[in-house]
Write a structure and sequence with these properties.
single chain; alpha/beta; two-stranded parallel sheet; about 20% strand
C-alpha cells in the first residue's frame, strides 16, 4: 500500500518553489523564474515540478480545498504551514484516487534518485543517514535558524 502522506509531502516539496510560476496565468517566463530554477535544483527540478503539477492540476482545479491550499503556497512557497496544508489536502485526494498516487510515485522516482533534507524555521534535524543506490543527488539545506547535525550521506 502506498503511503499517501509521504507521496503528498514529496510532491509539495518538489512543486512548492515553482508554484507561483505553475499557477501563473501569464505562464512561467521571465528572469525571476530563471533565478528560482537555478536556486532550487536546476532544470531537472523545474521539469519534475512541471510533470508533477501537470498530473495533479486537474484535481486541484476540481477540489476547492486543494485549490485554496495551492493558492496559499503559490503566494508564499516557503511558508511551512501552507505547504503542510497543501500536503494534507493532496493526501486526502490520493486516498480517494490510488491511481493518481501511483502516477505520482512514478514521476517522483524518475530516472535518478533524489534525497533531500530540508530544515526550516528553527527546526533541528539530526542523526540521519541517507543511502542512495545508483545515479542521483543528495542534498542538505538549513534555512531560517534551522540546524542539521550528524548527517551521513552515502551513494553506491
Amino acid at each position: 500500500m502506498l503511503d499517501v502522506a509521504q507521496i503528498s509531502t514529496a510532491v509539495v516539496a518538489a512543486v512548492s518553489p515553482f508554484l507561483p510560476y505553475l499557477l501563473s496565468a501569464a505562464g512561467a517566463a521571465g528572469e525571476k523564474l530563471v533565478e528560482v530554477i537555478a536556486e532550487k535544483g536546476g532544470e531537472a527540478a523545474w521539469t519534475r515540478a512541471q510533470a508533477l503539477w501537470g498530473t495533479i492540476a486537474g484535481t486541484v482545479e476540481r477540489e476547492p480545498a486543494l485549490k485554496s491550499a495551492a493558492t496559499l503556497v503559490a503566494a508564499e512557497p516557503t511558508e511551512a504551514a501552507y505547504c503542510s496544508a497543501l500536503a494534507i489536502a493532496l493526501g486526502k485526494q490520493l486516498e480517494k484516487d490510488p491511481t493518481l498516487a501511483t502516477e505520482l510515485v512514478k514521476l517522483l522516482r524518475g530516472r535518478d534518485g533524489v534525497q533531500e533534507i530540508i530544515a526550516d524555521s528553527g527546526a533541528l534535524v539530526e542523526d540521519v543517514e541517507q543511502h542512495l543506490r545508483g545515479a542521483g543527488t543528495q542534498s542538505i539545506e538549513a534555512r531560517r535558524n534551522a540546524a542539521v547535525r550528524r548527517v551521513k550521506q552515502q551513494q553506491d
